[in-house]
Structures are given as C-alpha cells and as structure tokens.
C-alpha cells in the first residue's frame, strides 16, 4: 500500500480515497443449504447440483474487475484486493457440514465501514460462513497502519436448522405476488429469529442514519444487533415491495445529500418516504434497466435492477455499468459525471459495481442529514 491507510467512511458519496475490489477466481455455485435456492438446468446446474463457475466466465469477470481496479487507481484511489480461498472445499462446524463455500467477489456483503470502524457481518449462508478469512490479511494491515481504526466482528452465528424455516422456498414460490409481499413486509421469510443475522450490504449508510433492509439474509434480530451496536446513530428497519429482497443497494441508492435513487418497481414504506421528504430529500425514480431477465448472463442470481448498483466516487461522479445508457443519461441530466464501466460479466459472481467493492476511506466527517423526525423514524 503506497497511500497511508486511514479508515474513515460515513456515507456512500464523499470523495473516495481507498477501496477494496473483489475477485472472481474460484467462485462456486453453492452446494444445497437451507437459505440458498439455485436451479439453472439450462446452464448445467439443475437444483441440487453445484460446482465451480466455468473458466471462461471467470476469465471474463476477472478482466472486468481488474479493469475497474485500474480505472480507480488511475483516478488516484488506492485499491486493495482480497485473497481467495479454495472455495470448493467442504467446511464444517460442530453443528453442520457444507459441501462448498461461495467466493469473494462481493466484499460489500461481508464488511461494513462506519466511520473509523470496519465491522464483519454475521452472514446468513453456511457457504459464506468462512468468507471473512479472505479479508483478514487486509483488515490486519489496516489495523496495524491506522491506530484509530476500530475492528469489530458481529457474533458468528451457529446457523443450525433452527435458524431457517424448513421448506421455505417451495412454500414461498407457490404464493402469489401479494402474498409474497405481505411476507416480505412482515419479514416472514427463510430466516427465523433464533439468532441475529445480517449481511453488510443490507445497510445503507447516510451519516447519522443507518437504514437496514429486512430481507432474505437479514432478520429483525440482525437489525436490533446493529441498532444496539451503533447507539450514536439512528438505525431504521425498512422494507420494500420486492418479492426477493437481497441487499438494499439495488433498490435505494443515495447519490449525494438531498438526492436518492429509488427502484420504482419496489415501493418504499410510506413512512420512509415521508422521512426523506420531510428532510428535503428528492427521491428520484431510476430509469428502467436496459436488460430483462432473459438478457441476464447465465448462472446470474441478480435481477436486471443490478443496473442501479452504482459506485459514487464523489458527490458529482458516479460509475455506472457501460450498457446502462438510460440511467447514465438520467444521472448526467442531474449534473453528474458518469464514468462507464463494463461489468455485466461480473454479475454471476455476486453483483455489480457497489457489491464488488467496500469503502475503506472517504473524505468527510459524520453529519446529520435528517434533522427532522417523521412518524416512527
């Protein structure tokens, strides 16, 4: 690392100085487990099967990830990379055995930076229980280099069968849209409340306010743990009309103070909208993605709205997937410099530009962007 290390990031738009960019090497279609549903018979992975993603897909994804890292470095941003494990190995704890791990492309899922703290999330998949090890060499180096850094880890979950609703996927997929949304709003999904569970990518950081999406990988216990862990913050549990909620950063994306990008197909809680509007925030409905579900890369478990999964370099500069020209035009019309980045080859490995990164340092200090209360917020 050539630049001095300083862990500091309070939001997703202050000028970016240091970041982690993930790697695609070794990524697996996970072996079956209670929280994961994979079924791609047309691409060689019918339900119940597993194995490494094809070599040509790995090479294409690595090329785009390396290109993205080079682009960021060219703008003076320090870029660090994780160390992949052998994700094909069987793992176990005293209470379960899992035939594969997953990968380390989406560090945003695992690590949450709040100010000078980096927090390792619980994770909710057995296949991702050991994924934090890919980032430990980096975290150790940050800890030694920055005396102000706080390094925390949420309680490692047991992930026994008690943490999952048996037969959830077959039951849920048989429901109609309205019934599924009712279950989402109640957070009555695959996770029980046996223990706190959350992915870091379900947390949207906006200064003094943290918005935690209740989802397929984040339960109410996880939200409560985050709220108690950050007592100086206002921590809000939120849901959207998304039948398969998996991370907030393709649904609700803050761009700069006063402006947030929203996936209009996934209606936000009215009280959440009221909270933003009471504090003079504009909620901008995102342009529709260019891709449809039929256009997604093979073995991709993301939705076309991954187009919204953008990375801000500063309050006036955003990285957008290069084919998403409608979104780029929309943001250019709001005064942003849009940096096009080829990235759809990375999607099957766990997400987009925001998923593939985690902020380590941004300029700026803790600020309160929501001085006025509204409803339960």
UniProtKB/TrEMBL annotation:
GO MF assignments: protein serine/threonine kinase activity
SUPFAM superfamilies tied to this protein: Pentein
Keyword entries, A-Z: Kinase, Serine/threonine-protein kinase, Transferase
Family as reported in the entry's similarity comment: Belongs to the amidinotransferase family.
Protein known as: Serine/threonine protein kinase
Organism: Dactylosporangium vinaceum
């Amino acid at each position: 690392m050539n630049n001095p290390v300083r862990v500091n990031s309070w939001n997703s738009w202050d000028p970016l100085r240091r970041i982690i960019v993930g790697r695609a090497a070794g990524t697996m279609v996970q072996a079956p487990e209670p929280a994961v549903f994979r079924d791609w018979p047309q691409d060689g992975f019918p339900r119940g099967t597993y194995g490494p993603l094809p070599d040509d897909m790995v090479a294409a994804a690595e090329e785009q990830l390396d290109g993205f890292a080079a682009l960021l470095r060219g703008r003076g941003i320090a870029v660090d990379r994780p160390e992949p494990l052998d994700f094909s190995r069987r793992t176990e704890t005293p209470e379960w055995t899992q035939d594969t791990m997953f990968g380390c492309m989406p560090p945003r899922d695992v690590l949450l930076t709040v100010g000078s703290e980096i927090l390792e999330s619980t994770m909710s998949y057995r296949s991702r229980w050991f994924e934090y090890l890919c980032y430990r060499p980096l975290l150790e180096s940050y800890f030694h280099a920055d005396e102000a850094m706080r390094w925390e880890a949420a309680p490692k979950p047991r992930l026994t069968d008690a943490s999952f609703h048996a037969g959830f996927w077959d039951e849920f997929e048989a429901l109609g849209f309205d019934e599924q949304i009712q279950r989402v709003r109640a957070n009555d999904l695959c996770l029980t409340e046996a223990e706190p569970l959350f992915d870091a990518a379900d947390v949207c950081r906006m200064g003094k306010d943290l918005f935690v999406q209740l989802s397929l990988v984040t339960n109410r216990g996880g939200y409560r743990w985050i709220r108690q862990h950050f007592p100086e913050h206002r921590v809000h549990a939120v849901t959207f009309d998304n039948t398969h909620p998996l991370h907030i950063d393709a649904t609700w994306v803050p761009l700069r103070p006063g402006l947030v990008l929203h996936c209009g197909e996934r209606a936000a809680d009215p009280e959440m909208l009221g909270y933003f509007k009471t504090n003079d925030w504009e909620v901008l409905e995102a342009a529709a993605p260019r891709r449809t579900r039929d256009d997604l890369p093979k073995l991709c478990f993301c939705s076309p709205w991954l187009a919204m999964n953008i990375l801000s370099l500063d309050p006036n500069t955003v990285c957008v997937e290069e084919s998403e020209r409608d979104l780029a035009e929309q943001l250019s019309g709001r005064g942003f410099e849009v940096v096009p980045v080829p990235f759809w080859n990375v999607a099957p490995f766990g997400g987009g530009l925001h998923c593939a990164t985690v902020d380590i340092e941004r300029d700026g200090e803790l600020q309160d962007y929501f001085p006025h209360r509204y409803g339960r917020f």
